[in-house]
Amino acid sequence: MALDDRRPSLNNCARSPRGWPQKGVLMLKPDRRMLIGGVLAAGAALALPARLFGADLPAPLPGAAVPIDAAERERRIERARQLMRAEGISALLVEPGASLVYFTGIEWHRSERLTAAVIPANGEIAIVTPFFEAPSVKQTLGIPAEIRTWQEDEDPLTFVAGVLRDRGAASGPVAIEETVRYFAVDGLRKALPAAQIVSGAAVVRGCRMHKSPAEIALMQRATDITIAAYRHTIPRVAEGMTPKQVSAMMDAATVALGGVPEFSLVLMGEAAAYPHGSRNPQIARESEVVLMDCGCTVQGYQSDVSRTFVLGQPTARQRQVWDQVHRGQQTAIAAARIGVPAGSVDDAVRRYYESLGYGPGYKLPGLSHRTGHGIGLDGHEPVNLVHGETTRLDAGMCFSDEPGLYIPGEFGVRLEDCFHMTEAGPVWFSQPSESIDKPV
């Protein structure tokens, strides 16, 4: 997906029920029956033809996803400790989110009540959490760790400070994972006035940017599900459908195949010229572009795939722009080589597009967003394939390849497939579209 704003408030973007946690409850993953029930209800509410659901849904993808085990999490923590020691950092503070899942397995929500992990460079990990939440937090804890609880009338940051003192980490620099909220950082400063607070981005990125074979396998499965859902959905898109109807159909197929829908953006006609859509009403029409940008999760790991096609026969203009974007994708993958700066991939695409008269740079008509983004437990992770990014590509890094072209007043085309870097070069998670006539 091109940018970070995937809010479902746009009337062209629908999401299936995710079982979002209520305040103060465990962030449990919804089961398949709950998700299917939700998307079936959504389909009924949108008056989709009955044949699009029920017996017409695809069968689950064969095989089973293998979760990340405790041994892999221990290796991740040891890698983080090595990076901390190399930088002279004494500990890392992590709040709920993808990084907490990555290191500890804990699936939890953020609220005004702090739950956090303290990962010291030396010594046992500690989880600081409210007393009444501890039993629930423990349910997804995937590594050995001390649990320190605080009561409602106590300051949780004093408990974080206590862990640091007990681990001999209070006097050295304390690193903060980059999404930790300000109140936690400010509270830690007050609890440990002499402590030096530093960014933990280099430590966390040094671990999470390089995916293991187990992570690659989960991302591959998520992508396989998304591709299979596209194969089910695209032939069923018909004239007169709305984006929400197509989105609901895609979500239903994703759930039936075994994935958890993460997003399903559908843009039609001129709205496809705006990467994340328009509030203007849309409807599928003969000879108009349909742009779909969809993804799901498997064991928390994400897919992100975009397809653009036309109902009926494409015009010469649509076919020309589609072919240009297809070549743009191939230009990006050809430029992605071990050791090159990530920004050079984006530069290669822009040189090609500018040779066709688009741009220059990020100007329209042309490619108004980066060529790609990192992906893993988060849909958008560091680093990006964007001009000026100097991080060098390395084995295990995963990216989207989505150099769309957007022509305001006409239409847009985005083709997106993700890949992972190996010592021999990039490897696709999904094979790019063959043509505008065969999008999957």
Provide a descriptive summary of the structure in words.
The chain is α+β, with helices and mostly antiparallel strands and 440 residues long. The chain folds into 2 domains: 32-45 and 211-428, Creatine Amidinohydrolase (Alpha-Beta Complex); 70-208, Creatine Amidinohydrolase, Chain A, domain 1, CATH 3.40.350.10. The protein has 11 helices and 17 strands. It has helices at residues 32-45, 70-87, 98-104, 134-138, 156-166, 182-191, 201-208, 213-233, 243-257, 316-335, 342-355, and strands at 91-94, 116-120, 126-130, 146-150, 174-176, 197-199, 260-268, 289-298, 301-302, 305-310, 372-374, 381-385, 398-401, 405-407, 411-413, 417-422, 425-428. A 6-stranded mixed sheet has the order 4-3-2-1-5-6, with helices on both faces. Strands 7, 8, 9 and 10 form a 4-stranded antiparallel sheet that branches. A 3-stranded antiparallel sheet has the order 13-16-17, covered by helices on one side. Strand 14 and strand 15 (411-413) form a beta hairpin. Helix 5 packs across helix 6 (182-191), helix 8 crosses helix 9 and helix 10 packs antiparallel against helix 11 (342-355). It starts with 31 loop residues before the first helix and ends in a 12-residue tail after the last strand. Residues 2-34 have low confidence and may be disordered.
